[in-house]
Design a protein that fits this description.
Layout: H1 2-12, H2 31-43, E1 55-59, H3 63-68, E2 78-85, E3 88-95, E4 100-106, H4 115-127, H5 129-137, E5 145-147, E6 150-151, E7 165-172, E8 183-192, E9 197-203, H6 218-224, E10 245-247, E11 250-253, E12 256-263, E13 267-277, E14 280-296, E15 308-310, H7 311-315, E16 335-342, E17 348-369, E18 384-399, E19 402-411, E20 416-424, E21 428-430, H8 441-444, E22 448-452, E23 455-458, E24 460-470, E25 478-486, E26 499-504, E27 522-527, E28 540-546, H9 559-563, E29 571-575, H10 597-600, E30 612-622, E31 632-644
Antiparallel strand pairs: 1-2, 2-3, 3-4, 5-7, 6-7, 7-8, 8-9, 10-11, 11-12, 12-13, 13-14, 14-15, 14-24, 16-17, 17-18, 18-19, 19-20, 20-31, 21-23, 22-23, 24-30, 25-26, 25-27, 27-28, 28-31, 29-30
Length: 657
């Protein structure tokens, strides 16, 4: 089948990584370490040739040990390993340095989908006689279709007990580039990837399929429409080489330094983000990474209600990193770096060009001022200003039909912007309607938009939760809000309405949950209570704003929302716990919502005098439109982090012309 060949060719770009030994305690696992993990597990008879590994990730040393670490120091390297066993799935902690298994026990949940399971579901569904019969009713042979295994969530019914389910719809094998243009609507299999068998095939009736292949390559587009006139290319260039330095996993640029790695579940992880303040390195963020991605669809029909994906926890953003292209994904002058993860067998795999690092002039002034009073007829004085340059660290994960770019953009004024770019293809369903004038159009578009003849894209959401462990100067920080509230004015004041800033400090985790609204402006402040700022302020950083969205969801009774109840609020705060890394819980696959950020905070721990972790959910509602098809323009969403009384003055003041 064509899809199998496509996936196989993708796997061929993954090769044995020849990584060097880790130089920092938070460095990603190297190729040699993955191999050694495998050897240790086999030597202790924990694993054998049949063992598969959904996830192997670095088990970080204690935070205090990392902060005390200096180059040349030695800390044990450890890994958390999820693997298949006779009892189902087990979890081991492997001490790589000492060459031993420290613990080994059955897991309480299900780790992410294995590539092997994905392929088994694809082939199993297409080979089932009921699926073959359903395809035949639609005039298709099995070789004319490919089936796409999708996680089916957990709806707390009997079929989800003692099972590991995927739901598998099919598409016609594409004539060109677009694998999603011709859905085989009304037909899908329910496949248990644990038992390796089809539970049943659902056929809700034949829907006339679309005829258009909707290819999106330049050659395919040129056959449909005249391409735009050739123009002079606009390119980013950098003469003389980069101004950043990369030493293994360590990057230094302008006023910033930090470490990075790639993990299989969250993708890019940024650690030890420090800023240079007049010659003194000061910590800002201990660690930041994607915590979970939740994409629920708003179509309640049989073939769609279960499409409530947890893209990071069920599939893995690191696993689905795709090679970046110079001149398209990143400027040609960027530095391209590989990412090393583990395959199903626990062997090291490298994804080439998985990360790009580049600096760019954004074409805007970092600051400027034109002084009208300095002008004379004899000597006009131009505006004083400086050009703005930023450093970008970028990855792109293709999870099914969507591509997600994750950027960490560092500014010369001390600001940090996390950007998420959503592009790729809408998920579409086949319908009878070819126009909104058709009698079937109202019913066909009850939960989405007719974006092409016979194709409806369902309404849905995208939520991106980030775990941001601020350590402003030190781990023990204060968290507070700065609320814009009406000022109390004297009755004799000529002004009758003004605002002022009200500082509020939540005492506990339950108090420190917030929604963002333009009608109730509020900024979130993380500060160091032990350090006196330059003018006596408590120096800090703040989340200034971000892209957020809320829905009319029932977080108590709707299973997908109960499993992802962290989207009810955009900002959460918890006491640091190294085991709490992912807002959707340690195990996302068929989770029940009992191990999530929304449940952790019910302990309502005091935040006073504690190391605090801040969680932020950026998101947007996606009402599809014709302009999204056949490929969607990149939609950027942000988390905006900026200094607040941290520096003595504008740090961009010292930029050279």
């Amino acid at each position: 089948m064509r899809l199998i060949k496509h996936l196989a060719s993708t796997a061929l770009v993954l090769g044995l990584a020849a990584g060097a030994a880790a130089a920092h305690p938070l460095d990603g696992l190297t190729a040699e370490e993955y191999q050694k993990i495998n050897q240790i597990l086999r030597a202790e008879k924990v694993a054998d040739d049949n063992t598969l590994y959904p996830l192997i990730e670095l088990k970080e040393p204690a935070k205090a040990d990392v902060l005390a670490w200096k180059e040349g120091d030695s800390l044990d390297r450890k890994a958390t390993v999820y693997f298949t066993s006779a009892e189902g799935f087990s979890e081991a902690v492997v001490n790589i340095t000492q060459g031993k298994v420290e613990s080994n026990a059955k897991t309480s949940g299900q780790p992410m989908v294995l590539f092997t399971e994905f392929m088994n579901a694809l082939e199993g569904a297409l080979g089932h006689p009921d699926m073959v019969a359903g395809l035949a009713k639609r005039g298709l042979k099995p070789e004319q279709a490919f089936c796409l295994p999708l996680t089916g969530g957990n709806f707390f019914t009997e079929e989800y007990q003692n099972s590991r389910l995927m739901k598998v719809p099919c598409y016609q094998v594409p004539e060109g580039s677009n694998f999603y243009a011709k859905p085989v609507e009304g037909l899908f299999a329910i496949y248990d990837i644990g038992k390796k068998e089809v539970q049943r095939v659902i056929d809700t009736g034949v829907v006339k399929g679309p005829k258009d292949a909707w290819g999106y390559t330049e050659e395919e587009v040129a056959k449909r429409l005249p391409l735009r006139a050739e123009t002079n290319p606009v390119k980013l260039v950098q003469e003389g080489g980069p101004n950043y330095k990369i030493d293994g996993s360590h990057i230094e640029w302008d006023m910033w330094r930090f470490n990075f790695r790639v993990d299989k579940r969250p993708g890019l992880v940024v650690s030890n983000l420090d800023v240079n303040d007049a010659g003194t390195w000061r910590s800002v963020i201990y660690q930041a990474h994607l915590s979970e991605v939740f994409v629920p669809y708003m179509d309640p029909t049989e073939g769609w209600y279960w499409r409530t994906y947890m893209d990071s926890g069920e599939y893995g953003f690191g696993l689905f990193l795709s090679p970046l292209r110079a001149g398209i994904d990143c400027p040609s002058h960027a530095t391209f770096l590989p990412a090393t993860i583990a395959d199903d067998k626990g062997s090291p795999l490298v994804i080439p060009d998985a990360i790009c690092v580049f600096e760019r002039s954004i074409g805007d002034p970092a600051w400027r001022h034109f002084e009208v009073f300095a002008q004379t007829p004899e000597k006009p004085v131009p505006a004083e200003g400086r050009p703005a340059t930023e450093l970008v660290v970028r990855t792109a994960s293709e999870v099914g039909n969507y591509d997600y770019l994750i950027d960490y953009r560092l500014q010369q004024n001390g600001q940090v912007n996390i950007y998420v770019g959503a592009t790729g293809l809408d998920a579409v369903k086949g319908v009878a309607s070819t126009s909104m004038k058709d009698p079937t159009a109202k019913a066909d578009t009850a939960y989405g938009t007719l974006i092409a003849p016979n194709l409806v894209a369902a309404n849905h959401d995208h939520y991106f939760n980030f775990r941001i462990d601020f350590d402003v100067d030190q781990p023990i920080n204060h968290f507070s809000t700065m609320d814009i509230v009406p000022a109390k004015l004297d009755a004799s004041s000529p002004r009758k309405s003004m605002w002022t800033v009200e500082h509020k400090m939540p005492m506990t985790e339950m108090e420190a949950r917030y929604k963002l609204s333009s009608s109730q402006p509020r900024y979130f402040h993380i500060s160091d209570p032990s350090r006196e700022g330059y003018l006596g302020h408590e120096p800090g950083y703040m989340i200034h704003h971000g892209d957020v969205s809320y829905g009319p969801f029932d977080f108590e009774n709707d299973p997908p929302m109960k499993r992802n109840a962290y989207i009810e609020y955009s900002v959460w705060n918890t006491v640091y716990d190294p085991e709490q890394r992912y807002a959707g819980g340690k195990f996302a696959m068929q989770s029940d919502g009992s191990d999530t950020l929304a449940e952790w905070v019910k302990k309502d721990q005091s935040l006073m005098g504690k190391d605090i972790v801040t969680w932020f959910s950026a998101g947007f509602h996606h009402i599809p439109r014709m302009e999204d098809w056949p490929v969607m323009s990149t939609e950027w969403k942000t988390v905006h982090i900026m200094p607040h009384n941290f520096f003595a003055h504008n740090p961009a003041l010292t930029i050279r012309k």
